[in-house]
Amino acid sequence: MVRYNKVIELLEQDKPVFCSGLVWNGNVDDMTFVGDADYDMVIVEMEHQGFSFNDLRTMLQFLMNRKKVSEKGSLQADPAPFVRVPPNFRERNQWVLKQALDAGVYGLVLPHLDNVEDAQAAVTAARYPQVPGVADFEPEGERGWW
């Protein structure tokens, strides 16, 4: 099964995942080079420099290699964009995770995730809440459209 997130697909197949080095948020030149290379994923650095969701959205446009999409015949991101968010997760700044995912990244790198409770809170923050009494496929939300 082809997944939108290439990293999940490779991990399910017990295959290695190759990642570029960190790309500073806002550096569209490096993002273009990474998009043309054969990496499976890229991590956009927002923890130590460049906390701007507008820059992140712009960079994601430069990551997409339209020729690769056409040749592949799939909308699977190649490479899959991940972002390292600024707050230590123990701070529970869940809005940052939601905004990063809404910008279009496929995964999150969470600094200082220290325990199971923090990991569970991160998963909860990364998903839209289920409306009581509604079937599991609702609400789709913006992240479901990417």
Portion of residues within helices: 25-40%
Helical/strand content category: alpha/beta
CATH class: Alpha Beta
Strand content: 5-15%
Give the tally of β-strands. Answer: 4
CATH topology: TIM Barrel
Strand order of the largest sheet: 1-2-3-4
What distance lies between the first and last C-alpha atoms, to the nearest angstrom?
18 Å
Identify low-pLDDT runs: none
What is the rounded Rg?
16 Å
Reading the helices and strands in chain order gives HEHEHHEHEH
* Sheet with most strands: 4 strands, parallel
Dominant shape: globular
CATH homologous superfamily (4th level) name: Phosphoenolpyruvate-binding domains
CATH-level-2 architecture: Alpha-Beta Barrel
Number of helices: 6
Return the domain count: 1
Average pLDDT score: 84
Family: Belongs to the HpcH/HpaI aldolase family.
Domain HpcH/HpaI aldolase/citrate lyase: 35-130
Organism: marine metagenome
GO molecular function: aldehyde-lyase activity; metal ion binding
Description:
It is a single chain. The longest helix has 11 residues, at 53-63. The protein is an alpha/beta fold and 146 residues long. β1, α2 (28-36) and β2 form a beta-alpha-beta unit. The chain has a single domain, classed as Phosphoenolpyruvate-binding domains (TIM Barrel), CATH 3.20.20.60. The radius of gyration is 16 Å and the shape is globular. It is built from 6 helices and 4 strands, in the order αβαβααβαβα. α2 (28-36) packs parallel to α3 (53-63). It has helices at residues 6-12, 28-36, 53-63, 66-72, 94-103, 116-125, and strands at residues 23-24, 41-45, 80-84, 107-109. A 4-stranded parallel beta sheet has the order 1-2-3-4, with helices on one face.
